[in-house]
Design goal:
Oligomer: heterodimer
Distance between the termini of chain A: 20 Å
Shape of chain A: elongated
Number of strands of chain A: 6
Radius of gyration of chain B: 22 Å
Strand content of chain B: 25-35%
Radius of gyration of chain A: 32 Å
Number of helices of chain A: 15
Helix content of chain A: 55-70%
CATH architecture of the largest domain in chain B: 3-Layer(aba) Sandwich
Structural class of chain A: mainly alpha
Helix content of chain B: 25-40%
């Protein structure tokens, strides 16, 4: 191994990269663009969502009417945000039409006599229409509306019991062997068998910026790293300079080591820029721990090896670009690089779990965003290291074959 | 006017081959810089080299002349880039060709080996690192080849790129310099400049192997020439020896106010005089020309111009292979 030759190759590559406009874009401008765009769109706190609810009700003269329910709904807030955006429709059919066309998320129909029944202490019916075409949306909308009515029902029951107690205190004989307080307790337990108390905990959660900083690291491995080493090596072959290097006292291995190190340094600079920029622009970022950097290093080795293997297999810059894009584009989503794994369909989850770059990113997120202990991540890191080493062996064999072809 | 002075003046009218050939060459005293014995190389079914054998003496300029596809570049790449071969033996200064002998050989390929985005100096620094060559030579090489140190390689003209290639190959001061089609694509001034540089390397004692398909380049620079065709060496020798192979004679044409033609005819019987122009058929123009001029001057002639019509290497190649060089 000729250290001076390796140093020369690294310095040469870094100088070339510094002067190549396209590389400058991918390495230095892209991180800023990605984090600015996605940080700008999804960055900051996630406010509670507002649900558009259509209502149909009839005018009544009773003390409590459907209109009162609607007013209560309008005033429900979480962290100052109104949860329901109420739209009134004159008829059930017009409300259903609005729901079918996506103008509202749900329709509540209070039939005639609703207010009268409530006032008289009788069962009152409410019809709620949901759009079930999107199960996730249905889950959220129905959860919010059913939650509201559940709470509303509970408050009504409590009010009924309060009125009942007033009557009991006034009319119940005093000589019965049970106190009114005891009866009260039993009645309350009948109405609310479970007392649900909400307590707040600030859990380990990743902000959008943190998530997109890690996505950006994944993107650099899927595209810039693979293309940089693949196309860079092929350029040296096509230009005849690799033949020259191989003929010099330096060896093909010196070249490969130099090329991998220069690619690694470039990608690390790019990652560092992304991380720092997120902190400067949005006040938050992900600065990996030593184990996080180890995962990044292993992922970089895998990515460089895959890029090199594709390049040596195709022996054409155009074909390498095409294959890297063909492989990487779907993996952006399927390997959970730019979307959370939780929203992936079932069939895609194994890809996110077993494709080494997806797995590496998942581990990085678990470690750095959710602060899982290192002991939980380490078995994965070992597998990742093995996977990367395997890919490196394949790449080196293909590279060796390409060098032999030069001779 | 002395005979020597006349000859000096005449040199400017004589075609370049007569000026450039056989300068300070004494192969008898040199050892072999390169020895190749029965070298074979195939690319699949295509036989690129078919039993090539040759010896290149230390300090000589040796040209491989042949058309494109003759096997010149393959032979050079075996010597300079470690291209594998099927069988045969190659020795460099007596040692078997290996990675160890690589530093003895400097290779100037046809295409630029400079990195476009690096400056001239950065390119030299990179190759110095690669060859573990001292960096203090870089400035001297930049000066010698008159290279623009701070210009990026992509901004250089073809001539400067070729000079940069040369400078790179000299970084580690190799004993042998191999040049593949050095003047292809260069304009006439750049070509002349390059030829001057190649001659200066020879003066420094370097052995030069030159592959070219330009016969005038081979004739102008080389002490000996090997003519290659279809992977074989079909003839080796000096330009004159090669021309002699085909047995054709040269014609020396003299113009002016000529006197003593009959005296000249005694020594050169195949002589024709017509309209003040003398045409003399000779076997060896280099030997005959000074004598012809000497006789004519001594008889009171005033010579205006001398032209030598020699058989060219193209003629040699045509005769030996039945086809042209291009």
């Amino acid at each position: 191994m000729k250290l001076r030759a390796i140093k020369g190759i690294i310095l040469k590559d870094l100088k070339e990269i510094r002067r190549e406009k396209m590389v400058i874009f991918w390495i230095f401008v892209f991180p800023l663009m990605w984090i600015t765009l996605l940080g700008g769109i999804w960055g900051g706190e996630n406010p509670p969502i507002t649900i558009a609810v259509g209502v149909v009700y009839f005018n009544e003269t009773t003390p409590f009417t459907a209109y009162d329910v609607v007013k209560i709904m309008e005033n429900v807030t979480i962290e100052g945000v109104h949860i329901f955006n109420i739209k009134t429709y004159p008829s059930e059919s017009s409300g259903v039409d609005a729901l079918e066309h996506g103008r509202i998320d749900a329709l509540i129909v209070f039939p005639k006599g609703f207010g009268a029944n409530i006032t008289r202490g009788l069962q009152a019916r409410v019809y709620v229409y949901f759009d079930k075409s999107d199960p996730q949306n249905y889950q959220i909308v129905s959860g919010a509306i059913k939650g509201f009515f559940s709470e509303f029902e509970k408050r009504m029951q409590e009010k009924s019991i309060e009125i009942t107690f007033q009557y009991m205190e006034r009319y119940m004989p005093k000589d019965i062997p049970i106190s009114i307080e005891e009866i009260k307790e039993h009645l309350l337990a009948m109405v609310n068998p479970l007392v649900f108390e909400e307590k707040e905990v600030k859990g380990e959660t990743a902000s959008a910026i943190q998530f997109y900083v890690t996505s950006f690291i994944g993107i650099q491995f899927l595209f810039a790293t693979m293309l940089s080493i693949g196309a860079g090596t092929l350029e040296e072959i096509e230009r005849g300079t690799l033949r020259r290097i191989v003929a010099s006292p330096a060896t093909a291995w010196d070249f490969l080591i130099g090329k991998m190190l220069s690619t690694f340094i470039t990608i690390m600079v790019s990652i560092f820029i992304g991380i720092t920029y997120a902190k400067l622009a949005f006040g938050e970022t992900v600065f990996p721990s030593p184990l996080g950097w180890l995962i990044i290093f292993i992922a970089a080795v895998f990515s460089m090896s895959l890029g090199l293997a594709i390049a040596m297999g195709t022996r054409s810059i155009k074909a390498t670009n095409a294959i890297v894009n063909l492989v990487s584009m779907p993996l952006l989503a399927l390997a959970a690089i730019v979307v959370p794994e939780s929203i992936l369909p079932e069939w895609a989850r194994p890809i996110a779990n077993y494709f080494p770059l997806g797995r590496a990113l998942k581990d990085l997120r678990l470690l750095e965003l959710y602060h899982r202990p290192a002991s939980e991540i380490m078995p994965d890191v070992l597998w990742l290291a093995l996977g990367s080493f395997g890919m490196l062996v394949i790449a080196v064999l293909l590279y060796n074959w390409a060098v032999k072809r030069l001779k | 006017m002395s005979v020597g002075r006349v000859i000096n003046l005449l040199k400017f009218r004589i075609s370049p081959p007569l000026i450039y050939t056989n300068v300070n060459f004494n192969p008898g005293e040199s050892m072999n810089a390169i020895e190749i014995k029965d070298l074979w190389k195939s690319y699949g079914d295509v036989k690129a080299l078919r039993g090539v054998s040759l010896e290149i003496k230390e300090g000589e300029i040796f040209a491989l002349l042949g058309p494109n596809g003759a096997g010149k570049t393959t032979l050079i790449r075996i010597l300079a880039e470690g291209l594998s071969y099927d069988r045969g033996e190659i020795r460099v200064f007596g040692e078997k060709l290996s990675k160890k002998t690589a530093r003895l050989i400097g290779y100037v390929p046809q295409e630029s080996i400079a990195y476009d985005l690096l400056t001239v100096k950065e390119n030299l620094e990179f190759y110095a690192d690669l060859y573990d060559a001292p960096k203090d030579k870089i400035n001297a090489l930049i000066e010698r080849f008159e290279l623009p140190a701070k210009k990026k390689a992509k901004e250089l003209s073809g001539g400067f790129k070729r000079r940069l290639n040369l400078a790179i190959s000299l970084l580690y001061d190799p004993n042998i310099l191999i040049l593949d089609e050095p003047s292809t694509g260069l304009d006439v001034p750049s070509r002349r400049k390059l030829w001057e540089l190649i001659e200066s390397f020879k003066e420094e004692g370097k052995t030069i192997l030159l592959a070219t398909h330009y016969m005038e380049e081979a004739e102008a620079l080389a002490d000996r020439i090997a003519i290659m065709n279809e992977g074989k060496i079909i003839a080796i020798g000096t330009a004159d020896e090669l021309k002699a192979l085909i047995g054709e004679e040269s014609i020396i044409q003299v113009e002016g106010l000529l006197k003593g033609i009959e005296k000249l005819r005694e020594e050169f019987p195949r002589l024709i005089e017509k309209d003040g122009i003398l045409r003399i058929q000779v076997k060896n123009p280099r030997e005959s020309l000074p004598r012809i001029v000497e006789v004519l001057i001594s008889q009171g002639s005033e010579i205006k111009a001398v032209k030598v019509e020699e058989p060219t290497l193209e003629d040699v190649f045509l005769k030996l292979t039945g086809r042209g060089l291009e």
